[in-house]
Amino acid sequence: MEKTFSFTVNGQARTVTTDSERSLLEVLREDLQLVGTKYGCGEGKCRACTVLIDGKSVASCVTSVARAEKQTILTIEGLANGDKLHPLQEAFLAEGAMQCGYCVPGMLLGAVSLLRQNPKPTEGEIRSSMEPHLCRCCNYPRIIKAIKRAAQDTKS
Ligand code: FES
Ligand code: FES
């Protein structure tokens, strides 16, 4: 059934009229043209599609658009502040933490959520928090290093 949903995406109020069964990922990519959020497995098992809803990391492929009603959503397009990259984006660049880059938007949003909850995580905490995120290029060591670097660079 079609319904109208309103939410804030990357600081902007957005309204979409659509089938309430559609996934948030579809709506972000197809209706709002926010294609930085990636489609991987479509089953909640790779986290390529991670976005934040009210600061909490979610797999947008298995999250209905209805769940996002009146919520605040952050996608990869909203992470930088104008021309200034987010510290995690800087750290991923500095550590070369990307090969094909397909997993990176989801990794970054997952890491943002982690560092907001736990600004100085141990390596074990980083590994455990990022475990649901798959990287087909197996770039895990550099991704972990980048998250550690961002945590170190961020003032406590
Ligand atoms: S595409 Fe959403 S978890 Fe894989
Ligand atoms: S860099 Fe290719 S999937 Fe992670």
Decide which structural class fits the backbone: alpha+beta
Helical element count? 5
Strand order of the largest sheet: 2-1-5-3-4
**Residue share in helix:** 25-40%
How many angstroms separate the termini? 47 Å
Bound small molecules, deduplicated: FE2/S2 (inorganic) cluster
Q: Globular, elongated, flat, extended or rod-shaped: what is the shape?
A: globular
Q: Roughly how many Å is the radius of gyration?
A: 15 Å
% residues in beta strands: 15-25%
How are helices and strands ordered from N to C? EEHEEEHHHH
Number of DSSP strand runs = 5
How would a crystallographer describe the biggest sheet? 5 strands, mixed
Give the overall pLDDT as a whole number. Answer: 96
User: Uncertain runs with pLDDT below 50, 5 residues or more?
Assistant: none
Task: Give your account of this protein's structure.
With 156 residues, the protein is of the alpha+beta class. 34% of the residues lie in helices and 17% in strands. It has five helices and five strands, in the order ββαβββαααα. The protein has helices at 24-31, 87-95, 104-117, 123-130, 140-153; strands at 2-9, 12-19, 50-53, 56-59, 72-74. A hairpin with a 2-residue loop joins β3 and β4. The chain is globular and about 45 Å long. The termini are far apart. The mean pLDDT is 96. One FE2/S2 (inorganic) cluster (FES) binds at residues 39-42, 44-49, 59, 61.
